Amino acid sequence: EFVTLRLENSDGCSGRLQVFYNGMWGSVCSNSMTPKTVSLACKFLGCGDRGTLETHLPYGKISGPAWLDRVECGERNNFFWQCPSTPWNPQSCDDLQDETHITCNGRWPEMPPVPKAACPNTTSCTDREKIRAVGGENGCSGRVEIWHHGSWGTVCDDSWDMQDAEVACRQLGCGPPVSALDEAAFGEGTGPIWLEQVECHGTELSLQDCWAQPGDSGACRHKEDAAVHCSGPVCPSPLPLPSLVLPFLCSCHADLTQDHPAGNRRVSLPVIICIILGALLFLFLALLALQSTRAGYR
């Protein structure tokens, strides 16, 4: 079961401690909370090595379960999830004072400044234009890169699976996924790593709609860039084309729209086949129209 921590209602390393479990964020009750527990939570969040349990609470009580209570980390525990606690069952803290609010002694690392632009083409764009697959054959396989804060960046392969690939392929307009690849299967990217620990249900319209950790913790490297291999381009047609012809035309469209360096554009075999099929289809439709016209005159 995927679990992680966050500081809710926080603009840094101070706020309400919450745990993500069973697809939902919930509280951590402060009963029996030890200084060691707070310090391990701060370490996990990348917010230093120590922290304090706050008693003056500026936040209101949240709705939803409290997943954890009586988390008692000891000196022998080196990782937050090793600490003993009560069973992971939906419960509720006794009152607002029982919810855990901490202030850590560190701060999140800042991302290097990048040029700001709303979209890859500096105009309004959809989520589909904020993702690309790099290094594959037709834009439907390759290293997954997303556009964020004015630049292209990669996605870490931690927890990357077929549900995440399902969303990425849908967002790319490339049909169902064939495989979810890791360890920079299509080469290492450059620039920022925008997302870590992506957790999609598979029904989201874009990776931006999935839960994920910001990729600024420094825990991931480009040798862990995530990638996908999708089944192929999906291109709707305004004409009722035969089902056996449409895949060829889609593939042809994908090949024709690939970016190639100037002076190095060669016509590939799939493009030639598509041109021939297109010509034959045009001829077939022309003959069908001519036959219909003759039948009308009779």
Automatic annotation (TrEMBL):
SUPFAM superfamilies: SRCR-like. It holds the Pfam family SRCR. Disulfide bonds join C29-C93, C73-C83, C156-C220, C169-C230, C200-C210. The keyword Disulfide bond applies. The keyword Zinc does not apply. GO terms for cellular component: membrane. Its main location: secreted. Residues 5-105, 131-231 form the SRCR domain. Keywords: Disulfide bond, Glycoprotein, Membrane, Repeat, Secreted, Signal, Transmembrane, Transmembrane helix. The chain crosses the membrane at residues 267-290. It is found in: Secreted. This is WC11 protein. It comes from Ciccaba nigrolineata.
